[in-house]
Amino acid sequence: MKLPLNLIPDEASPEWMNKGDNAWQLTAATLVGLQSMPGLVILYGSIVKKKWAVNSAFMAFYAFAMVLVCWVGWGYRMSFGEKLAPFIGKPNVALDQGYLLKPAFLGYFPNATMIYFQFVFAAITLILIAGALLGRMNFRAWMLFVPLWLTFSYTVGAFSLWCPDGWLAKLGTIDYSGGYVIHLSSGVAGFTAAYWVGPRASKDRERFPPNNILLMLAGAGLLWMGWTGFNGGDPYAVSTDASLAVLNTHVCAATSLLTWLMLDIIFFGKPSVIGATQGMITGLVCITPAAGVVQGWAAIIMGVLSGSIPWYTMMVVHKNIWLLKQVDDTMAVFHTHAVAGSLGGILTGFFAEPNLCRIFYLVPDYEHYIGLAYGFQTGRTTAGFRQMGVQIAGIVFVITLNVIMTSLICLFIRLIVPLRLADDELQTGDDAVHGEEAYALWGDGEKFESKHNSAFGMEEFPSVVPRTGGQV
């Protein structure tokens, strides 16, 4: 039985909490969570060969669960807690009721809401890294990689850029919603880990067709629409800036998709569904560091650039650079996340509008957070060049951090378990790794008895002898 509103204890709805902001923050977090579960689970499971569908989907599924346990255990406080160093917070648990019900460091809602919101961002970062490793990483190695990378890489980037005490945050680097912390990090870390893990089997690398393009589009659709919470939740309030961020996000994504599509038609003669999906992703990634601090026309320009520059690096540059050709990046996360994330960070430094930055950062200082374009317009070119400088400094820091930490983590794991699956497992896929397969179709080893299937019209099909260990 519900109590009347006037009898609800004060601590259940304290004066400092804004119910609308709290409700939106929980909703936004859930939208971001749906990008991973089931969005990327479906996308990964359907964009790979049939024999890797279970393994690819389960890498994402596992990472989501493991990150949450680590996040409340120590990760959140290392990312947003008391400062231990200019780039990291003190590890501590985030499960005590007294702590969870206190006001968050930003916004008018409790710590519990902030922890949940920040968790889904941490989780999707690890899942994006998995995209570079599909089709060959030892699952036991992945089980170790997730908590280690979260602890020693993600928390450093998050604290440095997003925590008010972080050194890049104090420097004034703009990363509205994770262009650096999530996308540049995952792109660089995924590429680095792919180098250490090694390539897929030669047959898989030569030909790796999706097993279900329609399901791939369903996963991509969840990813796209979930970005409403991804960028719309970062003002930590139901504000005008949140609304602008959401609209800019979708405008940039649509423009980027169409740009990529037109380039595919012009140069390859066919409108590629997978190509359009890549264009959608690069648009979403590129606008992320800028979503609520640029005007709508700038979002369109960013969409054109995010649909063309990563297209060029993937289709042209990749085939002519020795290092890029040596690394087997299954989902091309280097191009869709590292290149697009860096591009977004630089364009943020150019297009950041001072008034929008003032609304987002709640600061009256016009000498900070001013894009170079507005520096030229208002005669404050020094401030504009400074903003470009700190944006580039953030890029250099994130790249350096992730190359070093990801390499050290992979080398450490290699001392315990192999990073790559054995050759016989690479040939078989899911059945060898998990003892399970995604699709139990007639002709794949299932035995159909006519006396059991006559009601389903199976009499005309001959019985199929099952493989050893197969189920009848």
Computed over alpha carbons, the radius of gyration is: 24 Å
Instruction: Trace the largest sheet across and list its strands.
Output: 1-2
Q: What is the class in the CATH system?
A: Mainly Alpha
Shape verdict: globular
How many E strands?
2
Low-confidence stretches: 447-472
* CATH homologous superfamily placement: Ammonium transporter AmtB like domains
Number of structural units classed as domains: 1
Q: Which strand-content bin applies to the residues?
A: under 5%
Q: Give the overall pLDDT as a whole number.
A: 90
SSE ordering: HHEEHHHHHHHHHHHHHHHHHH
Report the total helices: 20
| CATH topology label | Ammonium transporter fold
* Largest sheet data: 2 strands, antiparallel
GO biological process, one term: ammonium transmembrane transport
GO molecular function, one term: ammonium channel activity
Keywords: Ammonia transport, Membrane, Transmembrane, Transmembrane helix, Transport
Organism: Vitis vinifera (Grape)
Descriptors for this entry?
472 residues, mainly alpha, Ammonium transporter fold, two-stranded antiparallel ribbon, 20 helices, 2 strands, disordered C terminus, Ammonium_transpt, transmembrane helix, membrane, transmembrane, transport
Protein architecture, described:
This protein is mainly alpha-helical and 472 residues long. The protein has a single domain, classed as Ammonium transporter fold. Helix content is 65%, strand content 1%. It contains 20 helices and 2 strands.
